[in-house]
Specification:
The complex is a heterodimer of chains A (255) and B (334). Chain A is globular and about 50 Å long. Chain A folds into 2 domains: 1-86 and 163-255, P-loop containing nucleotide triphosphate hydrolases (Rossmann fold, 3-Layer(aba) Sandwich); 97-161, no CATH class. In chain A, the strands form 2 sheets. Chain A has a 6-stranded mixed sheet with strand order 6-7-8-3-9-10, with helices on both faces. Chain A has 255 residues and is α/β, with parallel strands linked by helices. In chain A, helix 3 (102-112) packs across helix 4 and helix 7 packs across helix 8 (239-247). Chain A is 34% helix and 25% strand. Chain A has helices at residues 51-58, 80-85, 102-112, 117-130, 146-158, 176-193, 227-234, 239-247, and strands at 11-22, 25-36, 40-44, 66-71, 74-75, 87-90, 164-168, 196-201, 212-217, 220-226. Chain B has one domain (42-156, 163-325). The chains are: A alpha/beta (255), B mainly alpha (334). The interface between A and B is large, with 57 and 54 residues.
Chain lengths: 255, 334
């Protein structure tokens, strides 16, 4: 495992037997999942299921105490630099500088990845075009709507050209139009660039029939697989009903 | 290199190695962001400047007659209280700035900006050091602005009999000759950077262990005021000793005292008192590091404290050993 991992790794993200404990509360219990290349993988769970904790472990905010996490074959503990270079993240909370312009925010992020100014400028332009905000690059983030700010964060997460993209409830607080546009941009990325995406959400209507699903409930993974497999396993005719039956909760989402 | 040749938007199979240039880019990016943020908060710049100026214009003017300052190094003559208190006020700027950036780091941690920083592939200790240097750079901008205004204040000469132009010329003349010598502004720079680093790393460590800061008042009461008042910023230590030996001992142990003294000597192109004057201090157990006839205690204490606080901060932000994970971390469970 310490050897240079092959870059043609089929799995962009592998989480294997990861547990994490806060004091006396087991936030994650032996969690395993994987995100293949070119797959839109939905991490489905209610609030408090452990989604954010898992993201904190993958992004190395704190270390996984047990189990392993690999990003394109690079163990996040043994090869943190290589792992983080291949990982793009959109956090749940807003992380752009309100007083800086879109471009300044992106340039800052490029610097954090050691991308030289000249190359960074080209990539900022590309990334903003991809999310349809290139014409507003000199405006302050403060002037953007919630959905537009999210799109900038997606553009930002792509600057260092990661192979694996994590999004932690990226559509929380957005109106329907913005949600569709954000989901659409990410789906297009998966299709065009062979990215592996892990999309955490509690909103079942964001799941498409072709997606991979990982159901996380109270720190445990209850299911991994495709949508048809999920429906077959739970004996339901839709994901919402399946989610209810597998988790034993009265309702699938907050709406 | 490899990535530049790829068509727009493709994933790099093998990311560029993070060479020396990458580190420089990253450092400059972080410092640049700190400066931009500071410049966008005009009221912060304003209040950072007004605070020490009030002390200088009002407190020092009133206190001048109360406190006589005898000739102690680095001063070679009797000095006005304004001159004595200036290094202390510069220290105050550094202290406030450090605590404010610590507060902003706690805030950053809550909003997730700290997480953006920490997902950078560079080593975490390097990221934290860069962040610290950004804060120090901002503090330097404030400190030098203050020093220039303070010098102008000291050089100010006004006579109603003369014309405005004559008055301006006289002030300008004075500006060149009042204490300290102009070269002092250059020699104080290392002292400012070191002191800034020390206070900044203390603040960085605080930001990692303090879960939530309700407001700035808590930090004011429990960190800034005790550090500032129990130091040599406002009065010479021998004066304090006359009234309370215990307080004198506390001041001596306060790293902020050493930072202020380092700045004081730095303004006169020195790093500590010459050893003959330090003899008495040494007899008091005040100094422990005499090199080539110069007492380097202040320098040693400041460097030592910087390394200690910085080590503690890096430890606290270390993902496997750190305190963040144990405390539930930024935004976890949200």
């Amino acid at each position: 495992m310490l050897q240079q991992a092959p870059e043609t790794e089929a799995q962009t993200l592998v989480v294997n037997g990861v547990s994490h404990r806060f004091d006396d509360y087991l936030a994650l219990d032996n969690v395993s999942l994987s995100v293949p290349r070119g797959a839109f993988t939905v991490l489905l769970g209610l609030n408090g299921a452990g989604k954010s904790t898992l993201f904190s472990l993958i992004t190395r905010l704190y270390d996984n105490v047990s189990g392993e996490i690999r990003i394109l074959g690079n163990d996040v503990r043994r090869r943190p630099t290589a792992a983080l270079q291949r990982l793009g993240v959109v956090f749940q909370s807003r992380t752009l500088d309100q007083d800086l312009t879109l471009k300044q925010n992106l340039m800052y992020h490029a610097a954090l990845h050691g991308i030289a100014r000249r190359e960074a400028k080209i990539r900022c332009q590309e990334a903003l075009e991809r999310v349809g905000l290139a014409d507003r690059q000199n405006e302050k983030v403060r002037n953007l709507s919630g959905g537009q700010a999210r799109r900038v964060e997606i553009a930002r997460s792509l600057l260092h050209r990661p192979g694996c993209l994590l999004l932690d409830e990226p559509t929380v607080g957005l109106d329907i139009g913005s949600r569709e546009s954000v989901v659409g941009i990410v789906r297009k990325l998966v299709a065009e660039q062979d990215l592996g995406v892990l999309w955490a959400t509690h909103l079942i209507d964001e799941i498409a029939p072709t997606d991979q699903i990982v159901v996380l409930h109270r720190g445990k993974v209850l299911f991994t697989g495709t949508v048809p497999e999920f429906l077959a396993k739970t004996g339901s005719d839709n994901v919402r009903a399946g989610f209810r039956s597998i988790t034993g909760t009265a309702h699938g989402d907050d709406q | 290199m490899t990535t530049a040749a790829l068509p727009a938007g493709t994933i790099a199979e093998e990311p560029d190695r993070l060479g020396f240039g990458g580190y420089v880019t990253c450092l400059l990016g972080i410092v640049w962001r700190e400066v931009m943020r500071f410049l966008h908060q005009r009221e912060r710049f304003f209040s950072a400047l007004v605070r020490p100026l009030i002390w200088l214009f009002i407190f020092a003017a009133g206190f001048r007659q109360v406190l006589g300052v005898s000739i102690i190094p680095p001063y070679s003559t009797y000095v006005l209280y304004e001159t004595f208190v200036m290094p202390g006020l510069v220290g105050m700027i550094l202290l406030f700035n450090a605590m404010q950036s610590s507060l902003s780091m706690v805030y950053d941690r809550e909003t997730g900006a700290m997480r953006t920083l920490l997902v950078s592939p560079f080593p975490r200790s390097f990221l934290l050091l860069s962040k610290l240097l950004g804060g120090v750079f901002v503090a330097l901008l404030q400190a030098y602005t203050f020093l220039v205004i303070a010098r102008l204040w000291e050089a100010w000469t006004w006579s109603s009999q003369d014309s405005i132009l004559t008055n301006i010329a006289a002030t300008w003349q004075q500006f060149g000759v009042v204490d300290p010598h102009l070269s002092g502004y250059l020699t104080v720079l290392p002292a400012l950077i070191l002191s800034g680093l020390m206070l900044g790393s203390l603040a960085l460590f605080m930001s990692s262990v303090i879960k939530q800061l309700e407001n700035f008042a808590g930090v004011m009461n429990f960190v800034i005021f005790p550090m500032f008042f129990a130091s040599s910023a406002l009065y010479p230590l021998w004066r304090i000793k006359e009234s309370s030996v215990l307080l004198y001992e506390i001041c001596r142990l306060n790293p902020f005292t050493h930072a202020v003294e380092l700045i004081r000597f730095g303004l006169y192109g020195q790093i500590g008192p010459p050893v003959e004057q330090a003899a008495q201090a040494a007899a008091d157990g005040w100094s422990f590091a005499v090199v080539n006839g110069i007492d380097l205690t202040h320098l040693y204490v400041v460097v030592g404290c910087t390394l200690f606080f910085l080590g503690a901060a890096v430890y606290a932000y270390n993902p496997s050993k750190g305190l963040i994970g144990r405390r539930g971390g930024a935004g976890a469970g949200a």
